[in-house]
Design a protein that fits this description.
The chain has about 170 residues and is of the alpha/beta class. The protein is built from seven helices and seven strands, in the order E-H-E-H-E-E-H-E-E-H-H-H-E-H. The protein has one domain: Rossmann fold (3-Layer(aba) Sandwich). Helix 1 packs across helix 7 and helix 4 packs antiparallel against helix 5. The N and C termini lie far apart (about 40 Å). Bound molecules: adenosine-5'-diphosphate. The site of adenosine-5'-diphosphate (ADP) has 15 residues, from helix 1 and helix 7. Interacts with uS11. Not a structural component of 40S pre-ribosomes, but transiently interacts with them by binding to uS11. Belongs to the adenylate kinase family. AK6 subfamily. One of its GO terms (molecular function) is AMP kinase activity.
């Protein structure tokens, strides 16, 4: 079974991956699988542009967890969408040294439910669970994800309403 761990940058994917690794549950990062599909490096945005369709088409489904903000596009059996309230997300990204432009862009995408909407276009609802990390510890989030993967917790599509953050700086 393959589980995709996705979410807007700053929602906690890397932090959760580190917790799983420490617990002896290996996590593969999407970056490790994208090498052959990098088209160019966008120096201004410090990010690689990848051929997403070619990456998805070539992806050989694996056992375990794959982490990254595009992994919901993969043929995963389950998808965990991490969420974070836009103003808290902005604070996390600023602490990481992101430019203000990238902070606002990601906070807006989170307020718009952008990744969740994409996930719903690719996967049936029962494969998807949404976890709001705003007010909980990374350990708690990792516990919830483990329970969902084991089949001990039902999926949840409880979507927070962050529309008040739309169209304004956070
Ligand atoms: N419940 C939580 N789950 C995951 N990360 C959290 C949580 N609460 C706070 N954080 C913090 O949010 C930040 C998330 O950053 P990171 O894991 O790099 O996100 P991503 O990989 O999604 O870009 C970290 O500083 C982490 O400590």
């Amino acid at each position: 079974m393959m589980t995709a761990l996705t979410g807007t940058p700053g929602t906690g994917k890397t932090t959760i991956a580190a917790i799983f690794t420490a617990r002896g549950i290996p996590v593969v990062s999407q970056k490790e699988t994208m090498g052959p599909h990098i088209l160019e490096h966008d120096a201004d945005r410090d990010t690689d542009i990848i051929d997403e369709d070619a990456w998805v088409d070539a992806f050989v489904p694996m056992e375990g967890i794959i982490e990254g903000h595009l992994t919901h596009l993969l043929p995963a059996d389950r998808v965990v969408v991490l969420r974070c309230r836009p103003d808290i997300l902005a604070a996390r990204l600023r602490a990481r040294g992101y430019s203000e432009e990238k902070v606002q862009e990601n906070a807006e995408a989170e307020a718009l439910d952008a990744i969740l909407i994409e996930t719903l276009e690719v996967h049936p609802e029962e494969q998807i669970t949404v976890i709001d990390t705003t007010d909980q510890s990374p350990e708690q989030t990792a516990d919830e994800i483990e329970a969902f993967i084991r089949g001990d917790a039902p999926h949840s599509l409880a979507v927070p309403d962050w529309s008040e953050y739309l169209g304004r700086r956070v």
